[in-house]
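Tokens for chain A. Residues wanted.
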């Protein structure tokens, strides 16, 4: 990708060679091959892989469309050399000319053609050129007709070279990626009237100064500081929850969350029915409505701008709003993404470790499972090995069998963290009869790809 100095040197070389060979540049195709292709690629840094030529539209075929990050960003319409007549006396420098004005009157058919192709594809910038004259304009100006605005016109090669930095800012790939063209056109399209009146200060210089605090002001500072510091909730977690302002939307969300929680809990709570009756009902319901109607869980997205109170709403819901009879059957697993590194490749491993750590602290007295706890999680494997591959060792030496099974546990717990996390969740649901509720907070500032990785686990 070329810098400004290299781009200018290349442009000088290309235009010098074109002017020396101008008698042989007769057709539109000659202009494309000998001037436009070289300016776009050699000078402005657009690889040929970003070119799309002769793209079909409802009203014809466009000459060039340039693509950046799989988006159509720039349209260029080529004409035969000498076909574009810009009526201006000063042709050796860049001009800002109204598109519908008299100076560009003879170029309007080409401008309309380029704009028609660009507008139908949502392309923000269009260029009309014969290789020597370059007319650059925005195809969409919010709330206004783009023809009533100015185009940036280089009426000649001399104009391009004398103001090449502007040409480069508008059309180079490096500057296009930064959307520098927006600031260039904004200066032209959004002109402001300059104030010529002398400004007068609202206060006299003699009135400006620090006032000495009175004794009572020092005392009030302490009172106000003590009172208002409580409103931040830094020292009183319940204060923000108690002061939470309810709205119609928050009440609907409260009702929906509680209803969903009750619904899911109904599927994991022990029933008073006998096993035969439960099995019969389960089979009957699956036959009648189909297995696809049952879901293993629910995912809820609470959306709002930063500082809207989403975290406070969730804290309040699980601590105050949700009925206690339901609350005691839930295990809240709250993860704060502000603690993450933000690297996409480590997002899943970080979230897995965070969930495991939270669950271990919530389930086990010492903050981590004992041997017996792990044996309970992997009891099925223990019995299967005792009856199967390690049955001889189990019969001969129970202690040696336990040591060997400990190696198996190390492999499962330490090296397969996702599998271990699933075991913890299965234990919560199947044995403890609790509903695990994952709250993944503060994902607002991360990219879409990062969020997708984070939400792979709860889904």
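Reply:
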């Amino acid at each position: 990708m070329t810098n400004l100095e290299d781009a200018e040197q290349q442009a000088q070389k290309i235009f010098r060679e074109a002017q020396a060979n101008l008698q042989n540049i007769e057709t539109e195709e000659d202009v494309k091959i000998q001037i436009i292709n070289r300016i776009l690629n050699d000078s402005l840094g657009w690889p040929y892989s970003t070119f799309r030529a002769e793209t079909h539209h409802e009203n014809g075929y466009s000459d060039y469309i340039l693509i950046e990050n799989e988006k159509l960003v720039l349209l260029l319409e080529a004409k035969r050399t000498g076909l574009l007549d810009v009526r201006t006396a000063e042709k050796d420098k860049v001009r800002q000319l109204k598109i519908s004005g008299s100076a560009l009157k003879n170029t309007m058919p080409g401008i309309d053609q380029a704009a028609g192709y660009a507008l139908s594809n949502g392309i923000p910038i269009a260029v009309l050129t014969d290789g020597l004259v370059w007319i650059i304009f925005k195809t969409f100006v919010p709330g206004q007709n783009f023809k009533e605005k100015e185009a940036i016109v280089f009426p000649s090669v001399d104009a391009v070279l004398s103001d090449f930095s502007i040409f480069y800012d508008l059309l180079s790939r490096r500057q296009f990626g930064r959307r520098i063209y927006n600031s260039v056109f904004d200066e032209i399209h959004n002109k402001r009237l300059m104030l010529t009146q002398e400004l007068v200060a609202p206060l006299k210089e003699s009135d400006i100064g620090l006032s000495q605090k009175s004794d009572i002001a020092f005392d009030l500072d302490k009172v106000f500081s003590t009172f208002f510091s409580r409103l931040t909730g830094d020292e009183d977690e319940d204060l923000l929850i108690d002061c939470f302002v309810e709205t119609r939307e928050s009440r609907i969300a409260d009702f929906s969350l509680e209803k969903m929680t009750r619904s899911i809990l109904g599927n994991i709570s022990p029933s008073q029915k006998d096993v035969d009756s439960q099995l019969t009902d389960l089979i009957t319901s699956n036959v009648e409505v189909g297995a696809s109607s049952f879901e293993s869980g629910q995912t809820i997205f609470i959306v709002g701008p930063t500082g809207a109170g989403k975290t406070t709403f969730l804290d309040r819901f699980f601590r105050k709003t949700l009925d206690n009879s339901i609350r005691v059957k839930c295990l809240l697993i709250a993860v704060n993404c502000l603690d993450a590194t933000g690297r996409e490749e480590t997002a899943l491993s970080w979230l897995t470790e965070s969930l495991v750590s939270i669950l271990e602290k919530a389930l086990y007295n010492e903050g981590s499972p004992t041997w017996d706890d792990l044996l309970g999680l992997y009891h099925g494997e223990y019995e299967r090995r005792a009856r199967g591959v390690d049955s001889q060792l189990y019969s001969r030496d129970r202690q040696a069998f336990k040591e060997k099974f400990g190696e198996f546990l190390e492999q499962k717990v330490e090296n397969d963290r996702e599998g271990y996390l699933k075991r913890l969740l299965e234990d919560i649901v199947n044995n403890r009869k609790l509903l695990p509720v994952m709250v993944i907070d503060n994902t607002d500032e991360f990219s879409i790809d990062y969020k997708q990785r984070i939400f792979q686990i709860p889904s």
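Confidence is low (pLDDT under 50) at residues 271-295. The CA atoms of residues 377 and 423 lie 6 Å apart.
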